[in-house]
Automatic annotation (TrEMBL):
Protein name: Uncharacterized protein
Species this protein is from: Heterosigma akashiwo
Skewed-composition ranges (Basic and acidic residues): 69-80
Domain of life according to the entry: Eukaryota
Disordered: annotated span: 69-94
Length: 160
């Protein structure tokens, strides 16, 4: 599981897409940085036109913004100011929810076999045996193997 979730095909696709985009972003930034360094090296002593100068400034600005993008992302390991739990009426509903939010019980994971067995059992439990069938079953008795031998010996003894 990923973050406590059962991974389905759709979730795996989303996770794969996120990881791919992160890697691609890193590659694109490295490529842009390489291109900027290459142009700086090639055209170091020459004078550039206004269009070339604006393009270089734009690329430098894009690269700087892309590197600086994660600067304002909250760090999960840093301190965060807690939320106010008491509302205007003085209720502490949210405070009590926070106490149990972290410790939610996970549902029992069932295999396909267990689900199938439960479905069969529920169908069997709901079936009602008709009264006629119950009466018919009472008419007959079980025949055990030793009774058969006893009867067959009596029949054989009577024929001699």
């Amino acid at each position: 599981t990923y973050a406590g979730e059962k991974l389905t095909t759709q979730k795996l696709r989303e996770l794969s897409r996120i990881l791919y985009l992160e890697k691609r972003e890193k590659k694109e930034l490295e490529l842009l940085e390489y291109q900027l360094r290459d142009e700086e090296f090639l055209f170091d002593g020459t004078e550039r036109t206004g269009e070339e100068q604006r393009r270089m400034e734009l690329y430098n600005k894009i690269l700087g913004m892309a590197r600086d993008r994660n600067r304002f992302k909250p760090d999960p390991d840093s301190y965060h100011i807690p939320d106010a739990y008491d509302d205007e009426d003085g209720r502490q509903r949210d405070r009590e929810e926070v106490l149990t939010a972290r410790y939610e019980e996970e549902g029992e994971l069932k295999t396909e076999q267990q689900s199938w067995e439960e479905a069969l059992l529920s169908r069997v439990k709901h079936k009602v045996v008709p009264d006629d069938r119950a009466r018919k079953e009472e008419q007959y008795e079980y025949v055990f193997e030793d009774q058969i031998e006893f009867v067959s010996q009596a029949v054989l003894a009577g024929t001699r």
